[in-house]
Amino acid sequence: MPFVPGRVQTTPLPQPQLENTITLEQALLRRRSVRSYQPVPVTLAALGQLLWAAQGISGREGFRTAPSAGALYPLEVLLAVSRCDELAPGLYHYRPLSHDLVLWRPRDHRPTIAAAALDQECLHEAAAILVITAVPARTAVKYGTRATRYVHLEAGHAAQNACLQAAALGLGTVTVGAFDDMALAEALALPEAVEPVYLLPVGVPV
Ligand SMILES: Cc1cc2nc3c(=O)[nH]c(=O)nc-3n(C[C@H](O)[C@H](O)[C@H](O)COP(=O)(O)O)c2cc1C
């Protein structure tokens, strides 16, 4: 486990909702990149639901909502929280097995994340940012040099799940790939084995 903070401060997430009135087809139709958000909070339940959609546990033996080559699960999802009444601003690590958050770094990380990503306005405005990171070595153990490809494909699966979940919740998001890898890794205080892959700012659409 690469994210081991000095002092473990855990926040349990509400159990994910497994039913909704919106169909998969409606969510597919509604999914659109949304880059402007109202300056209002999102609920912890909604954040938990998005994290579950991206990488949550959905079956026996730890199988997850998104496919993974060899079920090796190289992805680690962080959540940069800015506006949530039930959670202090900070950078959190999502733990799928216990469906909870562990505080990785305190304080609002939105400005430094945005600065590493061309100061894109959607990152400045977001109530929270899902940060998909990866430990490619987990996949390389079995797949060698194809690990890079597999990790990126898997991040796409996880991101699409989160996009569809956001559409189903009436939240806005956009997948952001334009950032400086080193600057973002530094902003997130990522351990050496962990690479940033994708950013998904989330908020209530304007
Ligand atoms: C790999 C990838 C990287 C992207 N990076 C960014 C980005 O850095 N900033 C941004 O605003 N949108 C980004 N997008 C979103 C695209 O601009 C968007 O998906 C496209 O305009 C189509 O619109 P739609 O998502 O509403 O269908 C990215 C999309 C993908 C798939």
TrEMBL record:
Q: Which Pfam families match?
A: Nitroreductase
- What are the recorded GO MF terms, alphabetically? oxidoreductase activity
Q: Which residues form the Nitroreductase domain?
A: 29-203
Name of the molecule in the record: Nitroreductase domain-containing protein
